[in-house]
Amino acid sequence: MTPISRRGFLAGSAAAAAATSLEAFGFSEAEAAVAAAVKPFHLTNTTETRNTCTYCSVACGIIVYAKGDRRKGEKADIVHIEGDADHPTNRGTLCPKGAALRDIVKSETRLTQPMVRRPGSDRFEPISWDSALDKIARALKDDRDANFIEKNEAGITVNRWLTTGFLAASATTNETAYATYKVVRSTGILAFDNQARV
Amino acid sequence: MNGYLVSEVVDPANPSRMTLQQGKQLSGFGEYRDDGGVVGGCWVYSGSFTEAGNMMARRDNSDPDGAGMYLNWTFAWPANRRIIYNRASCDLDGKPWDASRKLLEWDGAKWTGYDVPDISPTAKPRDVGPFILNAEGVGRLFARQLLRDGPFPSHYEPFESPVANLVAPKVRGNPVARVFEDDWKQLADIGSADFPYAATTYRLTEHFHYWTKNNHVNSVLQPESFVEISVELAEEKGIAKGDWVRVWSKRGGLFAKAVVTKRIKPMLCDGRIVHVVGVPIHWGFVGAARKGFPANVLTPFVGDANMETPEFKAFMVNIEASTGPVA
């Protein structure tokens, strides 16, 4: 059985209540007209997913509504985002940025694939993930092989790589942040900072 | 990230009794060991995913006594504690400073209350202080280590300023702040007639940094770059609301529309009127909003003494009426 969402249940029971009272007065035609005129609530049959607003560190709770059942081969799509009324931080409210979150998902300038600006070029162009990662790995390996410092002047093992820096993202999960840290530090990179400071 | 046990742990008092079982998730960072018996990525997340399940997925927003702790709502590191150093909410004897807003209380044998105590649960009130990471257990007024600017932070004028520092006229900016040699040359002189107006950068409620210029709704709400000036400065420079203006510092310049408000008021500095130019920061050359100059073409390259935060809130500019940028 598909669980009925809170809002789907409310919308359904309001329509049922209206129909029942009209029928009691003998308005069966009116009842049909009302039923035909009621527009289905636009969040009925959507999947609600709890998440956290992408922007600032207040971390307001949001509910993301998606339509389309991927198990049936349909394409799932985010149709609405609103504040989570249960969340202690924001109690359902959102600021003008959080309230417009759907449009950052749907932004026309959103990056949907890796892009490269080649040396001397004045524009970005698409590149496949494989080619992009190969290119990055090659550049990192060459630089690390040339400049890695295994021991300092006193002969102590330091395993440093000072000629490359890494800027990590601020809007990531704990797991991504942890994996990023492990990868970057394991190479010996010291210049490692976070976009939150920029 | 939570950590798990690769070997069992037996009760030291009774070796036949096993306290922790191999393969189980840790219930908290207190179970970390340094003998190789625990695998864990980051101690602070320990307790977030225990044998009881994903603690971060908990959604019980009950709040006993309105204390605002919500201990059963997701997980807060470390140890699901909601306020660090919360023992400081009680006096020396462990009584809450404000009984109507109790977080913790010493009940004679242990710490009880609405938050997870940030102190050993049985540490007697006068034995252990609240600031457990300082050896003396109390807060420090004097910062003897770790900070460049101390023991107390002092007031210095910004590196670009309409007036010299009245307390120490020979000192420019904060003497322990970080400024590279070449960047010094890009600072306007103190009281420079070429750059007579104080400028500051800020954000708008409708935008988040440079992200939401890619957002249609936010770009409708605040579509284009502007600078904000006082009624007095607008009158002095012959600038009307909505006119194009050019604003420039010793480092660079920008064109923007003028918004004339009573919100920005001229300041009186050392007996002299100093006008202020406000520069919201949110525009660039891509996105749903109109193209605009980034505010940081104006700002100086100064890192503050302790945190290296850029001095983007106080610098000197000039302004004039303009016909706008040449497209």
Describe the overall structure.
The complex is a heterodimer of chains A (198) and B (327). Chain A is of the alpha+beta class and 198 residues long. Chain A has three domains: 1-41; 46-108, N-terminal domain of TfIIb (Single Sheet), CATH 2.20.25.90; 115-197, no CATH class. Chain A is built from five helices and eight strands. Chain A has helices spanning 6-24, 28-37, 102-105, 129-147, 174-187; strands spanning 47-52, 61-67, 77-83, 115-116, 125-126, 149-151, 157-168, 189-194. The longest helix of chain A has 19 residues, at 6-24. Chain A is elongated. With 327 residues, chain B is mainly beta. Chain B contains three helices and 16 strands. Chain B is elongated. The two termini of chain B are 53 Å apart. The mean pLDDT of chain B is 92.
Task: Give a quick summary of the entry.
The complex is a heterodimer of chains A (198) and B (327). Chain A is 33% helix and 23% strand. Chain A is α+β, with helices and mostly antiparallel strands.
Q: What are the defining features of this structure?
A:
heterodimer, A: 198 residues, alpha+beta, N-terminal domain of TfIIb, three-stranded antiparallel beta sheet, three-stranded mixed beta sheet, 8 strands, elongated, B: 327 residues, mainly beta, Barwin-like endoglucanases, six-stranded mixed barrel, 3 helices
